[in-house]
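stage 2 :: seqdesign
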């Protein structure tokens, strides 16, 4: 475009003023970033010849997104949360960190302060029918040494894809526990196989996804924070194999190494021995934590969470 306003003296002066480049106050990093982002918006408006009506529709959209509490939902939908993970992966590669369980995004539905139990937990409260899941494994370091006393903080959706706290029909901390590993680094829980999550169909996130020709579904998954003193905090998820959206996640969280086999146990003896009367699912999954190092960015991310109930 030959008649660009970008880089004209007038727009350059405007951008410098906007970002406070002409004053000595404020925060230098914030100033530089704001100036860049606003300049990028100017350029986008110009390049796409965005009309005032379109611009104000976007302003209304952002207002609605915040009012609906969906900022944290659109972020993974736009791949931004995955991009942050890719950057952490890259930083770890550069620092020579390798061999740990792959990370993937936290997502917006963690609640701090879930009940802490030793070794073994039941995550469902028994009020819901569904396919029983037994999941177990070991937490180890990259040398294969078991990490006893590690914390496996697990959370997942119910059989309708809803998360307690955000879904008022569930009791507090349903499908949420912190499990402390035993001396052999083992954890184990009984739960129900979750269903995938779908963005609220009438919400602003889905409204934008519609404009992009995209769905707002996630494959069924289980979230984990895994931590042990002296080791890098792991944020990850496993996917339930066989889900329609396994490789078509609106939040881009599916990764190699995070799709364990789901074994169906249909032996009548085994079913009875577990006190059940129907076939159940079984997943084995071990977590491997890397040693903490000073040369790589921290993986314990500080972000706002839903307040503990
Ligand atoms: C979820 O359960 C989730 O994990 C993400 C990333 C986004 C929306 C719902
Ligand atoms: Fe989730």
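stage 2 :: out
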């Amino acid at each position: 475009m030959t008649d660009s306003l970008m880089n004209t003296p007038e727009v350059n002066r405007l951008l410098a003023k906007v970002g406070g480049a002409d004053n000595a106050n404020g925060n230098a990093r914030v100033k530089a970033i704001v100036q860049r982002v606003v300049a990028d918006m100017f350029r986008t408006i110009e390049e796409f010849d965005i009309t005032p009506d379109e611009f104000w529709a976007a302003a209304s959209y952002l207002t609605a997104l915040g009012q609906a509490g969906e900022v944290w939902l659109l972020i993974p939908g736009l791949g931004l949360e995955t991009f942050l993970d890719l950057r952490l992966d890259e930083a770890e590669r550069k620092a020579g960190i390798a061999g740990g369980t792959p990370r993937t995004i936290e997502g917006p539905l963690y609640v701090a302060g879930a009940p802490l139990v030793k070794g073994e937990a039941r995550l469902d409260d028994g009020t819901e029918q569904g396919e029983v899941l037994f999941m177990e494994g070991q937490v180890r370091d990259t040398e294969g040494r078991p990490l006893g006393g590690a914390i496996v903080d697990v959370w997942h959706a119910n059989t309708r894809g809803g998360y307690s706290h955000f879904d008022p029909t569930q009791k507090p901390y349903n499908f949420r526990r912190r499990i402390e590993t035993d001396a052999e680094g083992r954890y184990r829980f009984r739960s129900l196989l979750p269903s995938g999550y779908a963005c609220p169909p009438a919400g602003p996130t889905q409204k934008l996804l519609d404009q992009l020709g995209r769905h707002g579904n996630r494959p069924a998954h289980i979230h984990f924070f895994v931590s042990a003193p002296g080791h890098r905090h792991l944020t990850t998820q496993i996917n339930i194999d066989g889900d329609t959206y396994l490789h078509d996640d609106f939040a881009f969280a599916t990764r190699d190494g995070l799709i364990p086999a789901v074994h169906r146990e249909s032996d009548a003896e085994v079913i009875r021995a577990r006190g059940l009367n129907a076939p159940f699912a079984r997943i084995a999954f071990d977590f491997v934590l890397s040693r903490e190092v000073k040369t790589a960015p921290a993986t314990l991310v500080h972000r706002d969470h839903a307040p503990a109930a």
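stage 3 :: structure notes
- The two ends are 55 Å apart (CA to CA).
- The chain has a mean pLDDT of 97.
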